[in-house]
Structures are given as structure tokens and as C-alpha cells.
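Hi Y.,

Following your request, here is the sequence exactly as I used it, all 271 residues.
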Amino acid sequence: MYQLLKGKRGIITGALDNNSIAWKIAERAYQEGATFTLTNAPIALRMGKINELAAECKTIVVPADATSVADLENLYKTSVEHLGGPIDFILHSIGMSPNVRKKKSYTDLNYEWLNQTLDISAISFHKMLQVADKLDVLNEHASIVALSYIAAQRTFPDYGDMAQAKAMLESIARSYGYFLGKKKKARVNTISQSPTMTTAGTGIKGFDVFFDYANKMSPLGNATADDCASYVLSLFSDLTRMVTMQNLMHDGGFSSTGISEDLIHSLTANS
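Below is the corresponding structure, written out as C-alpha cells. Let me know if you'd prefer a different format.
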């Protein structure tokens, strides 16, 4: 380890179990010298194993519904008090679609559920940024990262209304990144990650087939959760102080590849 985050304080959302990208990021951040609090929605806390992660990283869990301004205010105040100072980094790893979970076709969306998708998966990011801004809990040169997906730019039929949520998430990073950059020299970025074998990812219809397709399309193969953790840590560190308002592709080259030899061989073998 390089102690890239020595002395830095943060907040990590979304760790559910050891398959979660957020879980891997927390472990790496701890190894790199950071102190941080963990948070997730109360229902997720009951489903997951976040308390095991907290014990491993010698920290606390602060329950918070990221769609609730009051919960976020408590999260920040508790975190600053527990960590002993302002926040240097925040991970937004929050996403859920009732339409996708209940297998509603994109052409037959429940609009009330769509509003929930946007609130949970995207507007929560704006709330996290705005509450942090208003409470003035961010340190100079703080770094905020949210996890996104290429469905914000390209169509993947079974990704449903989460595509709109990711597009909004990336737009919020650009818009709020400007204001936090001017005010705090803070950075706000999103990472567009490869399909990853997480609890959330594997819940999407046809995920295993698409995972294999993306792996064949990507010159470097799919980026793993551990790979993503390393990339996020570089963004939390002082090595990337001039990177902001970007959607950064972390996909093994998938987003720049038209077609690959591996995919051609696979298609011709099955024809």
C-alpha cells in the first residue's frame, strides 16, 4: 500500500456485502490510511453485512436514507464529529429501480416507480452535494465520486429506467462540480464501470449473457470491483486534483471498441 489517503476523512455509501464495489473501496481506503464512516439505507442495513465491514475498518455505521435531507444532515454532522474534522472524500454508490426489480418493460413503466428510481439513484446525489455544501462540511480539495454506467449514453433494453437515472447522475456531477470547484476547489466525477458481479448487477435480466459479451468486447476484459476500487482511490487522492466534472470510463476499453475478434469468433462459431 502507498498510504495515498493518509490523514483523509470520508463517507462511503452503498456497501452491502463483500461483492459490492463500495465494500472493496472501503477496504482499500482503510488500507491506504483513510478514516471514514459507512452508511446505507436502513432496509439495506438489515439485508447486508455492513457491520462486519465496519469492524474490519474500525469505524461506525450511520443509517441514512439518501433521499432524506434530514438523514443526510445527521450523516454529515455525525461523521464530522466521529472523524474529528471536515470531509475529504465521498462515495455515492446508490442505485435502485422498482421497475427493473419488478421486471416492468421500458415501454410499460410505472411512473410512480420511475420517480422513485430517479430520486434514489440520481437526485440523492444532488441532495448529498447540496447538504454537504450548505453545512460546509467539505475540506478544500475534497473529492466526490459517484458510480455510473454506459447505459447513460447507449441503449441496453433490460437496463430500463436506470438509464435515465445514470444520465441525470452524470449531469448533476457536471453541474454541481462547477460550484464546488469554485467554492472549495473540490472535485465531482462519475465513473462508468464495466458490468460487475455485484448483488445489484446480477439482479438485471440477462446480466450473465451481457457480462460475457462485454468481456469479449473489451480489449482488457471487464474491470472488476477490485479494479474499480483502485481507480476510485486515485480520484480520492491528491494525485488527481485537477480532474473534475468528468464521466470517466473504467471498462477495459469497451466504450471505444466497435467489435472485437473474440466476439466475431464467438458469433461465427454459433452460426
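The CA atoms of residues 115 and 193 lie 24 Å apart.

Thanks again,
Q.
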